[in-house]
Prior knowledge:
By secondary structure, the chain is an alpha/beta fold. The chain has helices at 8-18, 38-45, 48-51, 67-72, 85-92, 123-126, 135-138, 141-149, 164-168, 181-189, 214-219, 221-240, 244-253, 259-271, 280-283, 290-302, 327-334; strands at 23-28, 54-59, 78-83, 97-104, 109-113, 130-133, 156-158, 172-177, 194-197, 207-213. Residues 1-9 have low confidence and may be disordered. Helix 2 (38-45) crosses helix 12. The strands form 2 sheets. The chain has a 5-stranded mixed sheet with strand order 2-1-3-10-4, sandwiched between helices. A 5-stranded mixed sheet has the order 7-6-8-5-9.
Amino acid sequence: MRSTVVCGAALMALAAAGAQAQTAFSYGTNWLPQAEHGGFYQSVADGTYAACGLDVTIVPGGPQVNGRALLLAGKIDAYMGGNMLQPFNALNENIPIVVIAASFQKEPQVLMTHPGKVKDFAEIATTGMKVLVSDESLVSWYKLLEIQYGFKAENREPYTFNSAPFIADPDTAQQGYVTSEPFAIQNEAGWTPDNWLLADYGFGTYSTTIEVTRDTLETKKDALKCFVDGTALGWVNYLYGDNAAANALIKADNPDMSDAQIAYSIEAMKQYGIVDSGEAATMGVGAMTDEKNQKFYADMVAAGVLPAGLDISKSYTLEFVNQGVGVERRKELTGK
Length: 336
């Protein structure tokens, strides 16, 4: 199916490429289908990938799915990474993974507090609040908060992905994703938490990345360009255009996903600039820069999360991004 939403120069370029036979391409997500995957589903649904020659299959992740293992085994062509800590760690361990685009300019991770409990982010630390944090987060972004804001390890309590302790105790903060947990708390508790987006307080990583192996990077460049460009257009069309068909695919792959959750997540992505902010505003969704990656790496070294001396330029490439794909389309849809 040829896309009905891609237009102008982008359509001409994609259509020319799509004149060739369709190439099968699989992309594994790192969790169950949701609005946070919407740009990918959009470009499957409206034919944007097909227009440049790819027959894309989205392989849903989940609690029992090891997507990165599937990538390394050659079972999928690309994988949805979390943030840049993973490829930096992979580089340190000589695992041949390269990030080729970053769908999210901001990591959606937040700390939530009860409404009006603190006046600014630093008060979470200075007031000695208990902070519900997962074991994984304790050794990543929480380390950064310790050195930048004075958070203390002894104030941390394990987060078991159950918000009941947070709801019951106003003297606690809890981690979550700005697109998800606040919605669940609204429904369960009847009030809206204050959300402190870590990306706005020093955790400056890209997120929801597209990872490939080094071999795929060298042997499937045309397919990767189509996928990155198609994804950039997909996100613009998903956020600002008609996303009904994409949402139908998401719900088909994840029957537990509700329309209300999808609508909330889309609005949160817009409100907090998760996808379309920073460099993406002028260079297109998926944009990355050496400067931002180097700054994040330096911060993680200072926090003791990563070792010094890594050549992180080997963990990502700017070959396929920063070309303005989707910028004009956004202007058409939004008028700005």
